[in-house]
Structure formats: C-alpha cells, structure tokens
Design a protein that fits this description.
The chain is mostly beta strands. It has helices at about 1-30, 125-130, 375-380; strands at about 60-65, 70-80, 85-95, 100-115, 120-125, 145-155, 155-175, 185-200, 200-210, 215-225, 240, 250, 250-260, 270-280, 290-295, 300-305, 310-320, 325-330, 350, 385-395, 405-420. Bound molecules: copper (II) ion (CU). Its EC number is 1.4.3.-.
Length: about 450
C-alpha cells in the first residue's frame, strides 16, 4: 500500500521524467537485473571451468588495483537497475599475504529514504524514484587520473558511468625512533570506485574507497539542487534561502542504507559481536575504570548506536599469523537517526541472509504474499548464521544559503576497519617487522 502512495507522490512532485522512470522501474522490478556484460554476444552456456581456474568475473567487470606498500584490492562490479553500483567478491591482499583475503561477498546501497519534515512527501529514491535509471555519464575531468567504464543499463543503454581511480590520502603512519634520529613515515593512497545517479533534482555520488591499510569506506554524497517544489516551509519546518524571509526550503532527511554481505576468508557464515563499554567514576585514589563486555549476536538484531558501542563481523575459519580470528569492525560516521519509520529507527540491522530481502524499505523483490517489505520487520528472531549487515546513516538536511547553486556535496557514510586481519600493520616497513607484541623494556 505504501508503495503505490509513494509512487503517486513521486509522480506528482517529480514531474513526468520520474513517472517514466518509475514505470520503467516497475516493468523491470521482477526481472532480476543480473550483471550486464559488455560482451553480450558471449554464449550463455560457456564450457564449465574448474572452480579454481574460473575467473571471478569477466575482465570488463573486474577491478584490481595495487596501492602503496604493495596492497592489492580486487573485486567485481555490476549494475543493478534499482540499487545502482554493486560490488561483489571484494578481497584484500596486503603484501605479507600469500593469497587474497576475501572481505565481502557483496555490497551495495539498500535505500535512500527521503522524508520531508512536514510529512507531505516521502521518497524511497532507490526503489520508488528511479535512482538506478538516473545513472550519469562522467566526463574525464570528474574521474581525474582514472578510468571511466561503460555501464550497460537495461532499458536505458550504455552510460559512461563508472569511475575507478586512485587518490592520495596523506599519512598512512609516522613514527620517530627513540633516539629521534630516524622517522618512518608513509603516504597512503586509496582506490576509489564511484558512480553518479540523478534522482529528480538531487545527484547522488555512490563512493567506495579502499585503502592500502585494509580499510574500506562507503559514502554517499548528495549534490545537484534542492527540490524546487519544496519551498513552502512557512510553517517553521524550513529555512529561507533566497532574499529576506521568502523561499523557505523544506527541511528533510536523507536516510541512507547499505546492504553488506560479508564473506570473511571466503565464507559467508560469519559471526557477529557487539561490544559495550561502561565507565565508572574514580573511587579512592584510583582513576576511572572502564569495563568492556563482548556479546555474541546469535539472533537477528535491530541495533542502536550508543557511545562506546560497536559491532564487528568475525571470520569463522580464518586466523591471522598471531592466531587471532580475522574480523572487520563497522565504524559509522556521524548519523542523525530518524525516528519516523520502523526501518529508520535503528542504526544497524543484522538479518539472516535471504535472497528476496534486498532493500531496507519498499523492498520490491518478491518475498511472497503478505511478506513485510522493510528490514525492521525481517528481524524476527531467526538464528544468525549467514548474516547480512544493514547500515543506516541519516542526515537531517536543513538547507542554508550556500546550498545554491549547485548544492555543495554533503557526505554520509561509514568505514569497515580491519581488526586482526593481519598480524601487524600491513604497511610495516621491513626494519620494524620484528616489533610484534610487548616491546623490550627500557633499562
Ligand atoms: Cu537534502
């Protein structure tokens, strides 16, 4: 029911272009939009190769980049007409590793939910407003030093839409020796993979960033223009952005969801853990104490962010050379949690993987008659054996004069930080390679 209401709202507000996009979207909603290979003439049933020899994906869909310190990232990309850019089989190989270490089975956006503060308009930009069909052509200037790859989009055609490039990130580390006679330092570099999708007047940059130290960052940047239809906020729910006290742009939220299917060391059957630390005031002559508790998340969870609370996904079968289980920590960026809908209310969800559960809200995949269509309702006590992590990062956008024109990019996102994936800093210079564990005490 909500779906049709929102489509009506989309068409009313976003003009005929949106109607067409929405119609095209409906038409393709049930046809699974699999990888669209540029080599479409390839026979469908290629001779089966042994699993070990089979490449992860065709060369046109492969991304491989070696960065500073000898770290190599590998992945496959594809394009989904609803979710946009999808990255599969993401692996990380620091110089010290003999083989690539699988991190993610699949990662993508799972919704951009945009409710306006006056309650009159509410959009699901991915599955209700044509995000995927709004893929933009990129000029070389907006992919500096990189490669722009053509993307075949079903019912749209080929768009020069995928940028892969590298970018300096500054210090990877710095350390002076005890005698202050030597400084070890390194300058890091990131692999960037991004697309731009236009939804009505907004343009969203979907950016993935892979660092030489094993960190992944996912961010969405919103730019373009404020909606010219939403200047009716004389009810105190907006901000005047033209001369004087006219032209009140209506405040709204961008609740961005990502869907992460981990696959640490090649297995999707990862464990999830929640950590909480509580601080107590000092007693007597002692200092304040902190107690940290680790709670295994064995059942589906709707998690709420809290100070000193964090989650990690742990490999069931992979250990680093120190004998510690490999894991990735989910590190959220700043977020304004929107209390308005069940699915926006929580900051992270862990659900047992189900193929039909693809979008955090307004899920247009077929989960059966009467099945709920949002992530909050999929959390119903199932044991968590093959977890999907849904990350929700909200931004409450109260417009400002600077938003015209064009609107400066505002970013929201999170990082995935390696924890014990390698036994040491993957960028450790050879001279320090023996400094693992408690150092010798000064005499
Ligand atoms: Cu906005």
């Amino acid at each position: 029911m909500r779906f049709s209401t929102q489509l009506a709202a989309a068409s009313r507000l976003r003009g005929t272009g949106a109607v067409l996009a929405a119609a095209a979207l409906l038409a393709t909603a049930t046809a699974a939009a699999g990888p669209v290979s540029p080599a479409a003439a390839e026979p469908v049933a290629a001779p089966a190769a042994p699993a070990a020899a089979r490449p992860d994906c065709s060369a046109a869909h492969r991304i491989e980049q070696t960065l500073d310190g000898g770290t190599t990232w590998r992945m496959c990309w594809r394009y989904d007409t609803d979710a946009g850019l999808v990255l599969d089989k993401v692996s990380y190989q620091p110089k010290s590793a003999a083989a690539p270490i699988r991190v993610l089975t699949s990662a993508k956006l799972a919704q951009i939910h945009v409710p306006y503060d006056d309650g009159k308009n509410e959009f699901d930009d991915l599955t209700g407003a044509g995000f995927g069909m709004g893929l933009q052509n990129l000029k070389p200037a907006e992919c500096p030093g990189g490669t722009i790859t053509p993307v075949r989009v079903a019912d749209l055609g080929t768009v020069k839409g995928l940028c892969t490039t590298t970018r300096a990130r500054g210090h990877a580390y710095r350390m002076a020796n005890d005698q202050m006679t030597k400084v070890w330092q390194a300058q890091g570099k990131d692999l960037l993979v991004y697309t731009v999708n236009k939804v009505a007047w907004y343009e969203y940059i979907t950016e993935w960033r892979f660092s030489s130290d094993g960190t992944i960052a996912a961010n969405v940047g919103a730019t373009g223009s404020l909606s010219p239809m939403d200047y009716n906020a004389t009810d105190g729910r907006g901000w005047p952005i033209g001369t004087g006290a006219r032209s009140y742009a209506t405040s709204h939220a961008h609740n961005v969801f990502w869907r992460l299917h981990f696959g640490l060391d090649g297995s999707p059957k990862d464990r999830v853990e929640q950590f909480d630390s509580t601080v107590t005031r000092p007693t007597g002559n002692g200092g304040p104490k902190v107690r940290t508790v680790r709670t295994p998340v064995t059942k589906e969870l709707a998690g709420d962010a809290k100070t000193m609370r964090w989650w990690r996904v742990v490999s069931q079968n992979g250990k680093n050379k120190d004998g510690h289980a490999r894991s990735y920590e989910i590190v959220p960026g700043p977020s304004a949690t929107h209390d308005g809908r069940g699915f926006t209310r929580h900051d992270i969800y862990f659900t047992q993987a189900r193929a039909c559960e693809q979008f955090a809200s307004n899920n247009i995949r077929d989960c059966g008659r009467g099945a709920p269509d949002s992530v909050d309702k999929w959390v119903n006590g199932e044991p968590l054996v093959n977890p999907i992590a849904w990350v929700n990062i909200g931004f409450h956008h109260i417009a400002r004069d600077e938003d015209q024109q064009p609107m400066p990019v505002h970013w929201q996102g999170f990082q995935l930080a390696p924890r014990d994936v390698t036994a040491m800093n993957p960028l450790t210079p050879p001279a320090l390679a023996n400094e693992n564990g408690q150092p010798d005490q000064p005499r």
